[in-house]
Automatic annotation (TrEMBL), chain A:
This is Sugar ABC transporter substrate-binding protein. Residues 1-25 form the signal peptide. It comes from Streptomyces poonensis. SUPFAM superfamilies: Periplasmic binding protein-like II. Keywords: Cell membrane, Lipoprotein, Membrane, Palmitate, Signal. PANTHER family: ARABINOSE-BINDING PROTEIN-RELATED, POLYGALACTURONAN_RHAMNOGALACTURONAN-BINDING PROTEIN YTCQ. InterPro entries: Bact_solute-bd_prot1, SBP.
UniProtKB/TrEMBL annotation, chain B:
Pfam families: BPD_transp_1. It is a multi-pass membrane protein. Its main location: membrane. Residues 17-34 have a biased composition (Low complexity). GO terms for cellular component: plasma membrane. This is ABC transporter permease. Residues 107-322 form the ABC transmembrane type-1 domain. Belongs to the binding-protein-dependent transport system permease family. The chain crosses the membrane at residues 45-68, 112-135, 147-169, 195-216, 248-268, 301-323. It is found in: Cell membrane. Keywords: Cell membrane, Membrane, Transmembrane, Transmembrane helix, Transport.
Amino acid sequence: MPTNTKHRRFVATAVAVTLGATTLAACGSSDDDSDAQSGPAKLTYWTWTPGMDKVVDLWNKGPGKEQQITVTVKKQASGDTLVTKILTAHKAGKGPDLVQAEYQALPTLVSNDAVADIAGEAGEAEGDFAEGVWQQTTLGTDAVYAIPQDIGPMMFYYREDLFKEYGLTVPTTWDEFAETARKLKEEAPDVDLTTFSANDSGLFAGLAQQAGAKWWTTEGQKWKVGIDDAATQKVADFWGGLVEEGAIDNQPMYTPAWNKALNTGKQIAWVSAVWAPGTLTTAAPDTAGKWKMAPLPQWSKSEDVTGSWGGSSTAVTTDSKHKEAAAKFATWLNTDQEALAALAKEGGIYPAATTAQLSEAFAEPPAYFSNQPDFYTRAAAIAKTTAPSAWGPNVNVAYTTFKDAFAAAAKDRSDFGAALTTMQDETVADLEKQGFEVAE
Amino acid sequence: MTSTRKEPSGVVGTPGGRPTPVARTSGGRPSPARARSRGRGGAPYVFLLPATVLFALFFALPIGYALWLSLHKVEVKGLGLGAGARQEVWAGLENYADALTDSELLAGALRVVGYGAIVVPVMLGLALVFALMLDSEKVRLTRFTRLAIFLPYAVPGVVAALLWGFLYLPDVSPFYFVLDELGLPQPDLLDGGPLYLALSNIAVWGGTGFNMIVIYTSLQSIPNEVYEAARLDGATPLQIALRIKIPMVAPSLVLTFFFSIIATLQVFSEPTTLKPLTNSVSTTWSPLMKVYQDAFGKGDIHAAAAGAVLIAVATLVLSFGFLRAANSRSKQEEAR
């Protein structure tokens, strides 16, 4: 994917050049605590990954014991709530030492000076990760604000048996996807291929990312918001068109109704990410072994790109008194084979570290996909094709606006383009209100 | 949330706990002269101290902080990355101007008014009717019925909303199954006008019992002689209810109305719980949800503080305005 690499470089250089000055300033702040490193360190770690305490036990009994670094896990709620909590704690100077942060939240945390630059302590970990993943934790600068933990490359999930029954073939392009949806409507009017759900902004962001959208870029000292760029418009119009003509459903996901639709074959496909088996296990338990995973449909036959939906990293806060120790733990947690195997087993995460993606923990397919023995081999191949992402300092605002604007548009089966414009306008207005300079 | 159950983020300091029905204090106050003659020392102040300290710490201070926050904003320099890129600066009334001109806040307020217009009359009407029925002598199984009507109040608001939410979803609701079997039309309860009914229903279901108990207790305290006199005068049970009981429990009706208005203005958990189930409830459906969204979705505590202060002011004006209106009416009646 030559175009892919080009995009990535473009973003990286653009941001790197413009942020050079600010990065230097940021580096300076992390040095003053270096004298606090000697002696035993007790660290607190805010995370929402289930079973993390068991993984941390491995550290506390092994490498942590040798280096006298003890980590305590404090279980947290995920997503936006945790970001707010971290920022509040940081304001009070009472932040934990380590936090789990979604990639799109990092610019917000960096911009509030809540997470520290650990390039000096953990920069060497770069080699363990794919370039596009690593770039999300550097924001394209020389700084390193977090160590990648898990990723969510997007894929297409479908009911193999029902596809056969209705005479459908697995779509490889979005055009074929639309045709498949229409054909299914003719075959079985009560059944939907899938739904357009407005209650998880990450899905739409991932789809836009696949199409080549870059929502936040910088120009000099100005941010440029490209939420309504051509690529995203293409994605919005595509889904809006399908909803409008009734080829797919317009109800939100993660509801009891949605679970039932998946479980009873009323919806027979789901555009999701590598973590889908976990969700399907609880949402559609009766259909285990009937689903299959395929690469996401492409915008043109020659392309091979996917977006990412979800994924998070481990960051060290600026409040930490033991940044070096914290960075050591973060590096161990996300690059050590034993730690990654435990993370996969206890937390059910899909690791960002490329070597771990084909490790023993991922030799077997997830139980739900026992019919697809090469599940993780394919997943690793798909993960490599992840398009770069471009996050900015107010992703939360864009995400919130998405939920309301697109929910209303989906409900009324009205113009998704207008909803996208709302999203763009609100995001720009918020940046300007905060005092950011925004390029036209 | 239309009874007096406490919201997690109550904006106005509604009296905590469950209010006891109208204990009117009249008389028995020591005359000022006697109070003055007894000890000029600081004893009263010492007794006042704990309450004052608690009030200052947990009431005045947070409100003061919210006011302070609402008058400030964060300003970013350049790209906003790195240390010292954000500064808290004086904003004056900017946050208030933004909130008042925000069409979403106004729309949310209107939605809540529409919701309240259904909830308050229906809930209080039902509560009054139930209370009168329980109070009449002919009803059997009073205790059981009273408990049965009161029980939903014991169900936490979020649980109630979830429970009803599942019943409203066509694909999983037994109601829809029955409607489908009978070949009857199946309305979409989570959209448009019916959404207001659906939300109101949860509040009415949860709140009627509490208000009924308040009114019922007040009915029980009416002396029996009054009824006897009425009966001797030839009043029918209906006339007794309309001419004696209702006027005599008017203070509790005022009280329940007062609490219902406050709770309605602060509606939050029902729409928040139903939100993930439908495209029709936005994240800023009610004003309080907008405040929550500003604070925890957008991370703008300054805008959230301004919104919260505005809601508090609106609640105060509306509820005390109502109390004053009710008071002056009863005074007029007394004067007559």
